[in-house]
Amino acid sequence: MTDASIVELEEPEFHEILTKRLRLRTVRVADTELIMPLITRPEVMYWTSQGPVQNVEQGRQWMSARTPGRDCFNFAIEERNDATEKDKKSPPPIVGLAGCFHPPEIGYMIHPDHAGKGYATEALQALIPEIFERFPSANEGGIGFDHIEGWVDSKNGASRRILEKTGFVFCETHIDADNQVRGPCELLIFRIARPGKTLEGLGLVPKANAESDGPPSPPVQ
Ligand SMILES: CC(C)(COP(=O)(O)OP(=O)(O)OC[C@H]1O[C@@H](n2cnc3c(N)ncnc32)[C@H](O)[C@@H]1OP(=O)(O)O)[C@@H](O)C(=O)NCCC(=O)NCCS
User: Fold this and answer.
1) Has keyword Acyltransferase (predicted)?
2) d(C-alpha 134, C-alpha 141), whole Å
3) Residue to probe by mutation, ligand 1, list 19, 160, 161, most atoms within 8 Å of CB
4) pLDDT tens per residue across span 48-65
5) In angstroms, how far apart are the furthest CA atoms of the chain?
6) How far apart are alpha carbons 151 and 102 in whole angstroms?
7) Ligand 1 test: best mutation among 109, 128, 153, most atoms within 8 Å of CB?
8) What element of type H or E holds 165?
9) What residue ranges of the chain have pLDDT lower than 50?
10) Vertex 128 angle, CA 127 and 132, to 5°
11) What is the pLDDT of residue 72?
């Protein structure tokens, strides 16, 4: 029986990005079981808008909302491992997710067992130029854009650090009054401009913030 809440859309084209230690490859609803260890973890999902999924069916729905259509640019992150790459009998574990499913917003998560190794930073460094290449410039019309943005809770120190390390600049603050997981919270919007453009030139740095020293300090955790 098919669940009517699962959106059936054309699968995105397969794309692969290799970094020194990681393989990023197009993620699909069929990867749900491999993604479950990630999206059931409360400490990972705390920073998302919906919280952890409780079972595979919810997992499929979560995935179907993030992998729709040909324009989907969302990736499973795997560790590169020569043995696994040669032996394709069993799929390698997925250690994280990164990509754009609401362009120009970027999202990312790494399983806690693999956190603290620089994986999110390494994945984003490779992904950012690919996103700009994949999506046309705003002046080419259609769905084009000339910047990428990351929305991060002001208390999420690790995520803020990743955006700063990969060249994003704090631009403005947004209050999320009804976050389902964390309650009312302060979101910081970081942006990075397409090569050859500037945030100032694109009118994306509000004047008050352009003149300030940076984002507000996170509270001591
Ligand atoms: C945030 C997350 C993606 C980090 O992944 P990761 O692979 O461990 O990140 P990296 O190792 O590349 O970089 C983390 C950086 O943050 C720093 N950091 C870690 N905890 C921190 C904290 N509480 N405050 C400030 N910086 C912190 C690390 O020291 C590191 O910086 P450094 O290289 O300068 O030392 C991962 O913990 C995660 O999935 N969290 C839950 C989901 C999430 O928050 N997603 C982002 C939503 S906007």
Assistant:
1) yes
2) 14
3) 161
4) 988 999 999 999 999 998
5) 57
6) 12
7) 109
8) helix 157-165
9) 1, 210, 212, 219-221
10) 115
11) 80
What's the CA-to-centroid distance between 122 and ligand 1, angstroms? 12
Instruction: For residue 151, give the H/E element and its range.
Output: strand 147-153
- List the structure tokens of 34: 């491999």
In a domain, 11, yes or no: no
With beta carbons less than 8 A apart as the criterion, state whether 145 and 103 touch.
yes
Structural domain contains residue 23: yes
Write the single-letter amino acid at 210: A
Distance CA 30, CA 28 (A): 5
What's the confidence (pLDDT) of residue 1?
A: 47
Q: What pLDDT is stored for residue 91 in this prediction?
A: 85
Backbone phi, psi, residue 127, to 5°: -75, -40
Structure tokens at 2: 């098919």
Question: How far, in Å, are 58, 171, 179, 180, 214 from residue 176 at the CA level?
Answer: 24, 16, 6, 10, 20
CA distance 71 to 136: 12
Domains in the chain: how many in total?
A: 1
Cα gap 82→87, rounded to integer Å = 8
Alpha carbon distance 47, 66 (integer Å): 16
Rounded to the nearest angstrom, the gap between the alpha carbon of residue 105 and the centroid of all alpha carbons in its chain is 8
